[in-house]
Design brief:
Layout: H1 2-10, H2 19-31, H3 44-62, H4 64-67, E1 72-73, H5 77-94, H6 111-114, H7 122-130, H8 135-158, H9 163-174, H10 177-181, H11 186-193, H12 195-208, H13 213-226, H14 230-250, H15 256-277, H16 279-291, H17 300-303, H18 345-355, H19 361-374, H20 382-385, H21 401-419, H22 423-426, H23 429-454, E2 457-458, H24 467-472, E3 480-483, H25 507-511, E4 525-526, H26 543-556, H27 560-564, E5 567-573, E6 587-589, E7 592-596, E8 604-607, E9 609-612, H28 616-629, E10 635-638, E11 653-661, E12 664-671, E13 676-679, E14 689-691, E15 694-696
Parallel strand pairs: 3-4, 3-5, 9-10
Antiparallel strand pairs: 1-2, 5-7, 6-7, 8-13, 11-12, 14-15
Helix pairs in contact: 3-8, 3-9, 5-7, 7-8, 8-9, 8-11, 8-12, 9-21, 9-23, 11-13, 12-13, 12-14, 13-15, 14-15, 18-19, 18-21, 19-21
């Protein structure tokens, strides 16, 4: 009975349990076996050790092939974006640098600023330094399942739940349908795993004073922010603010004055210090966001796109009610993974029961509010929220399901606490143990069955080097390539038969070098949209240059703009009638015909005449005119004012260069007269130029270089 009393004391701050119920339970506990002594309960330390060990070992057991690197988690964006990003991160770390700049996509790209490579996230840095991609992907996911589960367990224990109830909460959160549905969004997955720990430390700071818990909460918040998914960090912050507001409302009236000061202190330290720690990532991402065109910020259509629909609530009971892309029979809205909210049948029943207790009322309200927010296109609040910073910046309201999953997992624990107080269980510890085992096994089997379909494990064959990449790497000089995949590949593309039935089907994407895959194999490419990466993450002003360059090459065989960007190789599907270079035989590798363009511009070159334009439109037209006249080597187009070199084209310029690292290029130049030195790299605001150690003007040349 001492064990029960201690639990009640810990839970006192969350709502009082009726005294008559406590006395009734105590009397029944002694009446179970007349004349026999009540067996002592297991120690809290032993129960905690067993529960935490189970939360650590269970992911390793369920995904043992991934843990032992006998197979790799390969799925959608992992293949298109995250595995290539982790390949660059591993390469950079082993070379003793951070991946500030990728020379492999978009003609050069600020990968660290984009954020999802997690260039400043300690966990990612350690794992990616130790393991090459894709092994690092496996262990990043497994590690964060453990982080999410153990921290949710610790939070539930702090709130007064018994070890098994807290274990249920930790398991349901870390293995929930929401998290595993986003297993291919590694940045989201990792950022979400820190939510329980942030709230745990905020709760400790509220109870015991801001120091030292609030600084630790700030570090946990910073870890989430450094994962590189600002939307998840924003939603995590909303939960944090709700939690503190809830604690203030719950405080006794005479304590609310000091409670307000304490709340401001906890929030200020957590967000202020956390923002300072994560500033290196947040500021870089902000600068990039200001330069890209990724949706119509603030429009109602944008901020409510991919909203949860009322019929999706059926997924609480039947996650495959519309089929699944895992089996190739999905019939629902595009991007299936955005609408998965399953937490298991038994856990859902327990969550409903937990929501009916006094301790669960507020959490139930939070869960229902999260569902309402997820239904963005039917929620009138978004007519106002679309003007509010944060809400205006992100689409996919369905990702409020993170908050729902968090609240529901805690409710599962409270539901178990309510069940174990039932008359027929309170009289026998054996019945409690037997029922707990049944609940645990059924919940594990239920969620594991779904998780296997959401995180398919392929064979190592998926990541074998494509024949086309191997053929291109035989050229040791500097060059770029244009890759036109044999078929359009988007984020919704799935292998034939579904990704669970055909996990090795992703090999087709890898072999066709679709999207950002070339980065995995150090193949530098240019292109736009389906021709070379996530177009929405690149500078909107440079879109016309690349679109015109690709269109001219594919439609008329005009390679002048691609030549300007250093494109020596053009890869198109075998026998593709859209592209033909007379007199230039094509080599064949994998699914491609590979054409060589010997007119590609070098890594660095100089021009002697400069044409300055006043507008971007005028500059784009001037570049196209110079390309048509064959004068791109003689004259450059700029928007910024510069002294205009005007020397005969026969003036000699001697150029050599070296690249100590991707974001640093050193050129030795010797010229008979003034000239404009052009680096064949995509222009970005982060570049700086120096001449003989002194700052030099840096301008965007010909719309992109």
């Amino acid at each position: 009975m001492r064990h029960r009393a201690s639990w009640q004391g810990a839970a006192a701050g969350w709502g009082k349990i009726d005294n008559d119920m406590k006395r009734s339970r105590a009397s029944r506990g002694n009446a179970g076996t007349p004349g026999a002594a009540t067996p002592p309960p297991p120690s809290k330390e032993r129960g905690d050790a067993i529960a935490v060990s189970a939360l650590v070992l269970l992911p390793l057991v369920l995904f043992w092939r991934a843990a032992l690197l006998r197979g790799f988690i390969a799925h959608s964006d992992i293949c298109y974006f995250f595995e290539p990003a982790k390949a660059l991160l591993h390469e950079s770390l082993r070379a003793g640098r951070l991946p500030l700049w990728s020379p492999y996509i978009f003609g050069g790209y600020p990968m660290a600023a984009e954020g999802q490579i997690a260039a400043f996230y300690p966990v990612s840095l350690l794992i990616s330094w130790l393991l090459p991609s894709p092994a690092a992907v496996n262990w990043l996911l497994i590690t964060h399942v453990i982080i999410g589960g153990v921290s949710m367990y610790a939070l539930a224990r702090l709130l007064g739940q018994t070890p098994f109830a807290a274990w249920l909460a930790g398991f349901v959160f870390s293995c929930s349908g929401y998290l595993f549905a986003h297993s291919h969004h590694i940045s989201l997955f990792c950022a979400a795993a820190w939510l329980p720990l942030i709230i745990l430390l905020v709760e400790r700071a509220w109870r015991n004073g801001a120091l030292p818990a609030a600084p630790l909460a700030a570090l946990a918040w910073a870890m989430s922010a450094l994962c590189g998914h600002p939307q998840t960090t924003f939603y995590t912050t909303l939960v944090l603010l709700f939690w503190i507001a809830w604690r203030m409302v719950q405080a006794r009236r005479k304590e609310r004055k000091w409670g307000g000061i304490r709340a401001l202190g906890v929030v200020g330290i957590t967000l202020g210090l956390g923002g300072g720690v994560a500033a290196v990532q947040l500021l870089l991402t902000r600068d990039l966001a200001l330069a890209v065109s990724h949706g119509d910020r603030g429009s109602l259509q944008y901020v409510t796109s991919f909203s949860l629909q009322f019929e999706h609530l059926t997924g609480l009971l039947a996650p495959l009610w519309q089929g699944s892309p895992a089996f190739g029979d999905y019939s629902g809205a595009n991007y299936y993974w955005e609408y998965v909210l399953y937490i298991g049948l038994v856990p859902f029943a327990l969550a409903v029961i937990g929501g009916l207790t006094r301790t669960g009322w507020t959490l139930l309200g939070l869960a229902l509010a999260a569902l309402w927010m997820a239904m963005g296109d039917t929620n009138p609040l978004y007519h106002v929220l679309r003007f509010v910073p944060g809400f205006a910046d992100f689409r996919v309201p369905a990702r409020h399901l993170l908050t729902f999953t968090f609240a529901a997992a805690l409710l599962v624990g409270w539901g178990w606490e309510r069940i174990r107080q039932a008359d027929w269980l309170a009289a026998s510890r054996r019945r409690v143990v037997v029922l707990a085992c049944i609940v645990a096994l059924v919940s594990i089997a239920d969620l594991a069955r779904l998780d296997y379909t959401l995180a398919p494990i392929s064979s190592p064959e998926v990541y074998r080097k494509p024949e086309a990449a191997a053929a291109l790497q035989m050229d040791p000089t500097w060059w770029r390539a244009l890759v036109v995949p044999p078929r359009p590949v988007t984020a919704s593309w799935i292998p034939e038969g579904g990704w669970a039935r055909n996990p090795d089907g992703w090999c087709e994407v890898r072999q066709s070098l679709a999207l950002d895959v070339p980065q995995s194999y150090r193949v530098p490419v240019v292109g736009w949209g389906l021709l070379g990466g996530y177009a929405g993450f690149s500078h909107f002003a440079q879109i016309p240059f690349y679109r015109t360059a690709v269109r001219s090459a594919l439609e008329s065989g005009d390679l002048s703009l691609l030549s300007l960007a250093g494109v020596r190789y053009i890869l198109v599907a075998k026998k593709d009638g859209r592209f033909n270079l007379p007199g230039r035989p094509a080599a064949q590798a994998g699914p491609f015909d590979i054409y060589r363009n010997d007119d590609a511009f070098p890594r660095v070159f100089a021009v002697h005449r400069v044409r300055r334009c006043d507008t971007r439109t005028e500059a784009d037209a001037a570049v196209r005119a110079l390309a048509a006249e064959g004068k791109l080597r003689e004259e450059a187009v700029v928007l910024q004012p510069l002294p205009s070199p005007s020397v005969g084209a026969d003036a000699q310029v001697s150029l050599t260069y070296e690249e100590p690292r991707p974001e640093r290029v050193v050129v030795e130049a010797s010229a008979q007269s003034d000239a404009l030195l052009v680096l064949n790299e995509r222009y970005d605001n982060g570049w700086r130029a120096f001449c003989d150690g002194r700052p030099a003007p840096l301008v965007e040349v010909d719309g992109a270089l």
